[in-house]
Amino acid sequence: QGNMAFTGKYEFEGDENYDEFVKKIGLPSDKTELGRNCKIVTEVVQNGNDFTWTQHFPGGRTTSNTFTIGKEANMETMGGKKFKATVKMEDGKLVADFPNYYHTAEISGGKLVEISTSSGVVYKRTSKRIA
Length: 131
Description:
Layout: E1 8-16, H1 18-24, H2 29-35, E2 41-47, E3 50-56, E4 62-68, E5 72-76, E6 82-86, E7 88-90, E8 93-97, E9 102-108, E10 111-118, E11 121-129
Antiparallel strand pairs: 1-2, 1-11, 2-3, 3-4, 5-6, 7-8, 8-9, 9-10, 10-11
């Protein structure tokens, strides 16, 4: 896998437990609808331990977070909340504690697999590599 394992562009392919999860984290219903089966394109640029993680939403809205493994960074959730988090690398997975959920991301079988857990609800999102 090497050091640049995450670099690439990934398009949303499918998810599990979306509705249950967004209820748990208190996403407003208008945002819930926007996010359902949303063809989000996730663009990752990895340079060693430095990452830029950008999500492109249909209609032109983007969210971008820049972070370095093991250092606290200013981040923004998909709901637009700003917070501080330290992203760690564990067994090839990126791991972060967001304000109301625990998030992991890994490259598995050429796909970007993201898992968010909140109060026992596990939300899984899979994206296929497009670039």
